[in-house]
Amino acid sequence: MSITQQYLIDTYRARQHGDPTPPAPGTHDWQVMRELADHRRFRAALTCRPGRGRDRGRIRTALARLLGH
Q1: Which of 29, 36, 44, 53 is the most buried (most CB within 10 A)?
Q2: DSSP string covering 29-51, please?
Q3: With contact defined as beta carbons under 8 Å apart, do 62 and 69 qualify?
Q4: What are phi and psi of 40, to 5 degrees?
Q5: Which tens digit of pLDDT belongs to each residue from 24-33?
Q6: Which residues contact 4 (CB under 8 A, 6 or more apart)?
Q7: Would you report the helix, strand and coil content of the chain in percent, each value rounded to 5?
Q8: Greatest Cα pair distance in the chain
Q9: Average pLDDT of 43-58?
């Protein structure tokens, strides 16, 4: 059974019971990824390891090198 099929069954059951419908698959994916990154930085801080942080300069440099700028 696919995720979409399970979502449709859950939505149908929720409507039958008068419950609110569940969120669609993929609705909170970005939020989960941000929370995972926050958790990893937190765990690194607890073990006294330096965190990498959000080094946007490194990403920009790599993109500029790939694009030939």
Answers
A1: 44
A2: HHHHHHHHHHHHHHHHHHTTPPP
A3: no
A4: -65, -40
A5: 888 888 898 9
A6: 25
A7: 65, 0, 35
A8: 59
A9: 71
How far apart, in whole angstroms, are the C-alpha atoms of residue 67 and residue 59?
12
Residue 67 identity: L
Give the pLDDT band of residue 53 (cuts 50, 70, 90): low
Give CA–CA dist 44/29, Å, rounded: 23
How sure is the predictor about 11, in pLDDT bands with cuts at 50, 70 and 90? very high
CA distance 63 to 17: 51
Contact 10, 3 (CB under 8 A): no
As a whole number, the mean pLDDT across the chain is 85
Mean per-residue pLDDT, 34-48: 87
Give CA 59 to chain center in angstroms: 19
